[in-house]
C-alpha cells in the first residue's frame, strides 16, 4: 500500500491544493496590486463587506465613474454602428492612458458627438421641409393656373382668387362665374397647398369633405420622391394636395385638420413667374443644404473612425478598472485607515507568482510600505480548482454540470475522458457513421483558431466546445463499428472469411436448421454470416445484453474502487472498513457472480439458463441445479455467496453510526478539559465561524437515518443500476435496426429500379435520413444516455459533488464573460 | 462487396479432413494471441506518449491512465464478442429467398 502512496499524484485526479491568505495592502499600492493580481488571475477574493449595500462601500464613486464612462463608450459604439462604419480593431497595446485623462476625453467626445448629431438633425429637418416645399411647388403648380384677374395687385401668397386646372372643367365653370361676378372679398375662394403622407390621404380627404360639408375641391398628386422621415428614419411616400375652399372659418378648420393629420402646408404663389422664382430659390437652398449635410456627415464619420480606432482598448480599460474597484470594494480598511485588508483563496503553487506580482506593485507605485501576504487557517472548505487544457476542459465541464467536485476528492473526469466516448460508441457502433462523425470533428479541430475567435450561435458553440469529445466519440465508434461489423448496416469480410457454412453441398437445410461452424471463430468482431439471417436478433440480443451487464459491473466496480481511494486520501478508515468492503462484497457476490456465469457459459458452451440460475439462487438455494450446472460445487458456492451478501447489509448499516457516536462522545469529553485552559484562544478567534461540530448537535438519529438511506440506496441500486446498463443494448439495437431499415427499404429498393432518377432520389433520401435521423438524433440520444450512465450509475458510487468552483479575479475571465 | 447472405452464393465446400488442432483449442490460442496483441499495442502507445509528450510525472501518470483505460475497454469489447462466438448455441438460419 505504500507503493500507492509513493506514486506521484495524477494531474487531473484531485483538485489543486489551496491556501487561505490574508493580504494587507497600503493604500497607495492597493490599486496597482489588485490590477496585477487581476492580470495573474490566480486569486479569489472573499467579499468582506457582504452586509453592506453597494452604496455604502468605499470606492462607490470610482465605480460610478467607471459605469458612466462605459455608458459613454457604449453611446459612441452605437453611433459608430448607426453610421455603418466598421471599427478597425487595433490590437496594439499602447501605453495605458490615465483613467482621468480618458474620462475627460470621453466627456469631450460625447459632447461633440451629441452636438454634431443635433446639428445634423436640424439641418436634415430643414432639408426635408425644403424638399417638400419643392415638391409642393412643382405639383401644385399643375393644379393652379396663373390668374388673369386685374386684382393681381393684391397678390399675396394666400390669394382669394380661384385657380382652376384644366381637368376639372365642369366644376370650374361655376366657380368661374362666381369669379366674374365678384372680386376677392372676405368670403372669396382660397386654397391651401401642402403635402401629406400617402397612407393618410384618404382619411384626410374624407375628413375635409365632412368638415366643409362638401364645399371644397381636393386635388392630389403623388410626390415622385420619397422623403426621409426624421422620426422613424424611414423613407415615406407622400402626396401633394391642393384644397380649394371658400370662407375664412373653413380655412381655420382646414388648417387644424392639416395639423392633426401631420400634413405640412406650404404657401404656393399662383403666379407662374413668382412660382418659378421661388422654385429656383428653393432649389439653390436645397443644394447648399445638401453639401452642408454631406460635409457634416463626412466630418462626423472621420471623428467616429478616429475614436473607433481606440475604442476596444478603452472599453477594455474601463472594464478592467471597474473590476478592480469592485474587488477593492471587497476589502476592508483596517483600524489605522492606512491599509486595506483582504482575504482570499489561492492555489499553493501560485504562491511565488503572487508574491512576485505584489513586489512589483510595491516598486511601481513607489510605496514605502511592503505588502504583507501571509497564510491563514480557514475552517470553511476551499474551492475546487482543476487546471485543464483545451482537451480536458470539455470533459471537466461535463462532470461539473452534474456537480463541482468537493475539495480534493477523486475527479471522475479522468476516467470519463475514455469511458464516455466508449459507451457512446457501444450504443452507436457503425463505422460508416463513425467516419462521418470523424470528418465533422476533424473539420472543427482544423478550423479551431478561426472558429474560436468568432462569435458562434449557441448550438455551434456547444458543438465547437465539445470538438475533442466528438473526436474520441468518432474514433471509438469506428472501432465498435468494426466489431459489430456494420458499415451503414452492411457487414464486410475484412478479417477473413466467415466461420459458418452450409452443412452439406446442397445447402438444403440452411433455411430450416441453419449453417454450421466449421472453422475458428471469426477473429475480430461479429461474423458476417449473421446479418440478414433469421436468428440474427436472438444471437445479437443475447450478446449485447450480456455485454452491457459486463460493462456495467466493470464500471460500477471502478466507482467503488475510487471511493476506496477517496477514503484513503481523507484518512477515513471508517469508510473503508464499513462501506467500501461490504459494498464490494455485495456487488460482486451477486452481480460479479453473474458476470462469472456469463463468461463460463460462453467458454464452455453449456446450455444452462442463467435467468433460472440467478432467480433460484435466491428462491431455493439448496436445490440441485441439474442441467443448469456450469461447474462443480456450484450449489455450495452459490449458498456461500448468498450468505456473504446477506451479511454485508447489516455490516453497511449498523457499525458506522454507533462508532461515530462513540468517537463524538470521546471528543466531547476531551473538549471539556481543553476549554478550561485555552479559553483565551477561543476569545480571539472571532471571524472564524465555528465549524467544529458542536457536540450537542451530533444527532444520532439523523446519522443513523442517513446511513440507512445510503445502505438501501446501494442495495437497491445494485439491481437497478445493473439493469440500467441494458440501455447500451437497447440503443445499439435501435441504431442498428434504423440503419438496416434505411439501407434495405430506401437505398436497395431505389437501386432495384433501372431509372436513374429513382436511384438518385433514393440516394438523396438515404443521405438525408442518415444525416438527420441517425447522425444527429441518434447521436444526441446516445450522448444523453452515456451521460446519464456516467452521472448516475458511475458517480453515485463515490462522488459527492458538493464543492464550489474556484473563480479567481482575472481580467481574462472578464473578457470571456462579457462578450 | 455487398456480401450479405441474401446476395451471395454460398459455395458448397467439401469438408476436408485436416490434421489440425480441434476447434476449441485453436479458438483459445486465437484468444490468447489477440489478447497479447492488445497488450503489446497498449505498451507501445504508452511508450509513444512518453516519448512525444513528456510533461512531468503527474501528466505522464494521467496519460498512462488514459491509455490503460482505453486499451482495457477495447480489449473487453473484443473479448466479449469473441467469447460469445466461440461456442455458439444457435447458428445462422438463412432467410427465405423471395
Automatic annotation (TrEMBL), chain A:
Domain of life: Eukaryota
Parts of the chain that traverse the membrane: 422-446, 467-484, 547-565, 585-602, 635-654, 756-777
Lipid metabolism as UniProt keyword: no
One Pfam family hit: V_ATPase_I
Stretches of the chain forming a coiled coil according to its record: 99-126
Keywords linked to the UniProt accession: Coiled coil, Hydrogen ion transport, Ion transport, Membrane, Transmembrane, Transmembrane helix, Transport
Annotated compartments: Membrane
GO cellular component: membrane
GO terms (BP aspect): proton transmembrane transport
Presence of the UniProt keyword ATP-binding in the record: no
Recorded topology in the membrane: Multi-pass membrane protein
InterPro entries: V-ATPase_116kDa_su, V-type_ATPase_116kDa_su_euka
Role, per record: Essential component of the vacuolar proton pump (V-ATPase), a multimeric enzyme that catalyzes the translocation of protons across the membranes. Required for assembly and activity of the V-ATPase.
UniProt record similarity statement: Belongs to the V-ATPase 116 kDa subunit family.
Protein name as catalogued: V-type proton ATPase subunit a
Organism for this UniProt entry: Salvia divinorum (Maria pastora)
Gene: VHAA1
From TrEMBL, chain B:
Entries under InterPro entries matching the protein: ATPase_V0-cplx_e1/e2_su
Key word Chaperone present: no
Alphabetic keyword roster: Hydrogen ion transport, Ion transport, Membrane, Transmembrane, Transmembrane helix, Transport
Pfam families found in the cross-reference section: ATP_synt_H
UniProt record, GO biological process: proton transmembrane transport
Membrane-related topology note: Multi-pass membrane protein
Entry keyword Transmembrane helix: yes
Membrane-spanning segments: 29-49, 61-84
Cell compartment(s), UniProt: Endomembrane system
GO cellular component terms, A-Z: endomembrane system
Protein family according to the UniProt entry: Belongs to the V-ATPase e1/e2 subunit family.
PANTHER family hit by this protein: V-TYPE PROTON ATPASE SUBUNIT, VACUOLAR ATP SYNTHASE SUBUNIT H
Protein name listed in UniProt: V-type proton ATPase subunit e1
Amino acid at each position: 500500500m505504500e507503493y500507492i502512496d509513493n506514486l506521484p499524484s495524477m494531474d487531473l485526479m484531485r483538485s489543486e491544493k489551496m491556501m487561505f491568505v490574508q493580504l494587507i495592502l497600503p493604500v497607495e499600492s492597493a490599486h496597482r496590486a489588485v490590477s496585477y493580481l487581476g492580470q495573474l488571475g490566480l486569486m479569489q477574493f472573499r467579499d468582506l463587506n457582504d452586509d453592506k449595500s453597494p452604496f455604502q462601500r468605499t470606492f462607490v464613486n470610482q465605480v460610478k465613474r467607471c459605469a458612466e464612462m462605459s455608458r459613454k463608450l457604449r453611446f459612441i459604439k452605437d453611433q459608430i454602428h448607426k453610421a455603418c462604419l466598421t471599427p478597425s480593431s487595433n490590437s496594439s497595446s499602447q501605453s495605458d492612458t490615465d483613467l482621468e485623462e480618458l474620462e475627460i476625453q470621453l466627456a469631450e467626445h460625447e459632447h461633440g458627438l451629441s452636438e454634431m448629431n443635433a446639428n445634423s438633425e436640424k439641418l436634415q429637418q430643414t432639408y426635408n421641409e425644403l424638399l417638400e416645399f419643392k415638391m409642393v411647388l412643382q405639383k401644385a403648380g399643375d393644379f393652379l393656373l396663373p390668374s388673369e384677374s386685374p386684382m393681381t395687385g393684391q397678390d399675396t401668397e394666400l390669394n382669394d382668387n380661384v385657380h382652376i386646372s384644366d381637368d376639372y372643367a365642369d366644376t370650374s365653370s361655376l366657380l368661374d362665374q362666381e369669379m366674374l361676378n365678384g372680386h376677392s372679398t372676405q368670403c372669396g375662394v382660397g386654397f391651401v397647398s401642402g403635402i401629406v403622407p400617402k397612407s393618410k390621404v384618404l382619411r384626410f380627404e374624407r375628413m375635409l369633405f365632412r368638415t366643409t360639408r362638401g364645399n371644397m375641391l381636393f386635388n392630389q398628386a403623388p410626390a415622385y420622391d420619397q422623403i426621409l422621415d426624421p422620426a422613424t428614419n424611414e423613407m415615406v411616400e407622400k402626396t401633394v394636395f391642393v384644397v380649394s375652399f371658400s370662407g375664412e372659418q373653413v380655412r381655420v378648420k382646414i388648417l387644424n385638420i392639416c395639423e392633426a393629420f401631420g400634413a405640412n402646408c406650404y404657401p404656393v404663389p399662383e403666379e407662374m413667374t413668382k412660382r418659378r422664382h421661388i422654385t429656383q430659390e428653393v432649389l439653390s437652398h436645397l443644394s447648399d443644404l445638401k453639401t452642408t449635410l454631406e460635409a457634416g456627415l463626412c466630418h462626423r464619420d472621420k471623428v467616429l473612425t478616429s475614436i473607433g480606432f481606440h475604442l476596444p482598448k478603452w472599453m477594455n480599460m474601463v472594464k478592467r478598472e471597474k473590476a478592480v474597484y469592485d474587488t477593492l470594494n471587497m476589502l476592508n480598511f483596517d483600524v489605522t485607515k492606512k491599509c486595506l485588508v483582504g482575504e482570499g483563496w489561492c492555489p499553493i503553487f501560485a504562491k511565488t507568482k503572487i508574491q512576485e506580482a505584489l513586489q512589483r506593485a510595491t516598486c511601481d507605485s513607489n510605496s514605502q510600505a511592503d505588502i504583507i501576504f501571509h497564510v491563514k487557517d480557514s475552517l470553511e472548505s476551499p474551492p475546487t480548482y482543476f487546471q485543464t487544457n483545451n482537451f480536458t476542459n470539455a470533459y471537466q465541464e461535463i462532470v461539473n454540470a452534474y456537480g463541482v467536485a468537493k475539495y480534493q476528492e477523486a475527479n471522475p473526469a479522468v476516467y470519463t475522458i475514455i469511458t464516455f466516448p466508449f459507451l457512446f460508441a457501444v450504443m452507436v457502433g457503425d463505422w460508416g457513421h463513425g467516419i462521418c462523425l470523424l470528418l465533422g470533428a476533424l473539420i472543427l479541430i482544423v478550423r479551431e483558431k478561426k472558429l474560436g475567435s468568432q462569435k458562434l450561435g449557441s448550438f455551434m458553440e456547444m458543438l465547437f466546445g465539445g470538438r475533442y469529445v466528438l473526436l474520441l466519440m468518432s474514433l471509438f465508434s469506428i472501432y465498435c463499428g468494426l466489431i459489430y461489423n456494420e458499415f451503414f448496416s452492411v457487414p464486410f469480410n475484412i478479417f477473413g472469411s466467415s466461420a459458418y457454412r452450409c452443412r452439406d453441398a446442397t445447402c438444403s437445410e440452411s433455411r430450416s436448421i441453419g449453417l454450421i461452424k466449421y472453422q475458428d471463430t471469426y477473429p475480430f468482431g461479429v461474423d458476417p454470416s449473421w446479418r440478414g439471417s433469421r436468428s440474427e436478433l436472438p444471437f445479437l440480443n443475447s450478446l449485447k445484453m450480456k455485454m452491457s451487464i459486463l460493462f456495467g459491473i466493470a464500471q460500477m466496480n471502478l466507482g467503488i474502487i475510487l471511493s476506496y481511494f477517496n477514503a484513503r486520501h481523507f484518512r477515513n478508515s471508517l469508510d473503508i472498513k464499513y462501506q467500501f468492503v461490504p459494498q464490494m462484497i455485495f456487488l460482486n457476490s451477486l452481480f460479479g457472480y453473474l458476470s462469472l456465469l456469463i463468461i463460463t457459459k460462453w467458454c464452455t458452451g453449456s446450455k444452462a439458463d442463467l435467468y433460472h440460475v440467478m432467480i433460484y439462487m435466491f428462491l431455493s438455494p439448496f436445490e440441485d441445479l441439474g442441467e443448469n450446472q456450469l461447474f462443480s460445487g456450484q450449489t455450495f458456492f452459490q449458498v456461500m455467496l448468498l450468505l456473504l451478501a446477506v451479511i454485508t447489509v447489516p455490516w453497511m448499516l449498523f457499525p458506522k453510526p454507533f462508532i461515530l457516536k462513540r468517537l463524538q462522545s470521546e471528543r466531547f469529553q476531551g473538549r471539556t478539559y481543553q476549554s478550561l485552559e485555552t479559553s483565551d484562544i477561543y476569545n480571539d478567534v472571532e471571524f472564524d465561524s465555528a465549524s467544529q461540530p458542536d457536540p450537542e448537535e451530533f444527532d444520532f438519529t439523523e446519522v443513523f437515518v442517513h446511513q440507512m438511506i445510503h445502505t438501501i440506496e446501494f442495495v437497491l441500486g445494485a439491481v437497478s443500476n445493473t439493469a440500467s446498463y441494458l440501455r447500451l443494448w437497447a440503443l445499439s439495437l435501435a441504431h442498428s435496426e434504423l440503419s438496416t431499415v434505411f439501407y434495405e427499404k430506401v437505398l436497395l429498393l431505389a437501386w432495384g429500379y433501372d431509372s436513374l432518377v429513382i436511384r438518385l432520389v433514393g440516394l438523396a433520401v438515404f443521405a438525408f435520413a442518415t444525416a438527420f435521423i441517425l447522425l444527429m438524433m441518434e447521436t444526441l440520444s446516445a450522448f444523453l444516455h452515456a451521460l446519464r450512465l456516467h452521472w448516475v450509475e458511475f458517480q453515485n458510487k463515490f462522488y459527492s459533488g458538493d464543492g464550489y468552483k474556484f473563480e479567481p479575479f482575472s481580467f481574462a475571465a472578464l473578457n470571456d464573460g462579457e462578450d | 462487396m455487398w456480401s450479405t447472405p441474401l446476395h451471395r452464393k454460398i459455395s458448397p465446400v467439401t469438408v476436408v479432413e485436416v490434421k489440425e488442432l480441434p476447434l476449441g483449442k485453436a479458438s483459445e490460442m486465437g484468444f490468447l494471441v489477440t489478447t497479447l496483441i492488445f497488450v503489446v499495442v497498449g505498451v507501445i502507445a504508452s511508450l509513444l506518449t512518453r516519448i512525444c509528450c513528456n510533461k512531468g510525472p503527474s501528466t505522464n501518470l494521467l496519460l498512462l491512465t488514459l491509455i490503460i483505460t482505453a486499451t482495457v475497454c477495447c480489449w473487453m469489447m473484443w473479448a466479449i464478442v469473441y467469447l460469445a462466438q466461440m461456442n455458439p448455441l444457435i447458428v445462422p438460419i438463412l432467410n427465405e429467398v423471395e
